[in-house]
Design goal:
7 strands, about 210 residues, about 15% strand, two-stranded antiparallel ribbon, alpha+beta, 5-stranded mixed β-sheet, 7 helices
Length: about 210
C-alpha cells in the first residue's frame, strides 16, 4: 500500500540536503511505496515523487569497512504529475516532449524564460507563470524542477555534495559510474539553443539526445 505524505522542501542551494534528510528514513522500503507531495497540498496535489526509485540498489561487498558505500543511487525517485487531484502518467513529461512543447508554445515568452532560468539556478518558481498554450506553464516548470533535481541526484552530485548521512555511489544499469555528469545542464543547454532560435526542437534532439 502506498503511503502518501506532504513533503515541505524549500528551494535554493540546500534543497538536496533537505531532500536527502527527508527521504533517507524510507530507503529500505519497497520500490515506489512512498508518495510525497512536493508541489501543491494533500487535498490539491500538483507534483509528487515516488520513493524509493527502481535505480536504488544495495551493494554487496565481501569485505566492507566503515567507509564503504553500500548503496547505489540512494535518492533515486520517480516524478509524478497530478491532473485535477488524480495521479497522472509521467510518460508525457519526457525531455523530448517538454522540448517540443517549449519550441512550439513557450520559447519566445521572456517572462517564462526568466522563470526557467530561476528554476535552473535556484530550484525556485517565483510568482505566477504567464498563460501559454500547450502544457500548463506551472506544471511544465514544476515538472522540470523535480526532473532536474532527480537528474542531478542520479548523474552528477556525489553523496558528499548532496550532504547525505550515508555514503553511496552513482551507478548505471551495468554497474559503471555515472557521477560528474552534466545533470540538469544537458537539457538546459537544449532549451537555450531553442530559445535563442539557433536550432529547432527537432534538430536539437539529434544533437543532444
Amino acid at each position: 500500500m502506498t503511503k502518501t505524505s506532504k513533503l515541505h522542501i524549500s528551494g535554493g542551494s540546500n534543497i538536496f540536503k533537505h531532500l536527502s534528510d527527508a527521504l533517507l528514513p524510507y530507503h529500505i522500503k519497497k520500490v515506489g511505496s512512498c508518495l510525497f507531495i512536493v508541489e501543491g497540498t494533500l487535498a490539491k496535489p500538483r507534483i509528487g515523487i515516488r520513493y524509493p526509485g527502481y535505480k536504488l540498489k544495495q551493494i554487496i561487498l565481501k569485505r566492507p569497512n566503515k567507509n564503504s558505500a553500500l548503496w547505489a543511487n540512494l535518492f533515486d525517485f520517480e516524478v509524478v504529475p497530478f491532473e485535477k487531484g488524480r495521479e497522472g502518467s509521467s510518460v508525457h513529461f519526457t525531455y523530448p516532449n517538454l522540448l517540443k512543447d517549449f519550441g512550439m508554445y513557450k520559447k519566445d515568452n521572456i517572462s517564462f524564460w526568466k522563470m526557467i532560468v530561476r528554476v535552473h539556478d535556484h530550484n525556485v518558481i517565483d510568482g505566477n507563470p504567464p498563460k501559454l498554450n500547450g502544457i500548463d506553464p506551472r506544471q511544465f516548470l514544476e515538472m522540470l524542477k523535480w526532473m532536474w533535481i532527480q537528474e542531478d541526484l542520479n548523474y552528477k552530485l556525489s553523496w558528499k555534495e548532496v550532504g547525505s548521512k550515508i555514503p553511496y555511489r552513482l551507478l548505471n544499469r551495468n554497474g559503471g559510474p555515472t557521477s560528474k555528469g552534466a545533470g540538469r545542464d544537458k537539457f538546459y543547454a537544449a532549451l537555450i539553443l531553442v530559445h535563442g532560435n539557433y536550432f529547432s526542437a527537432d534538430s536539437i534532439r539529434k544533437i543532444i539526445p
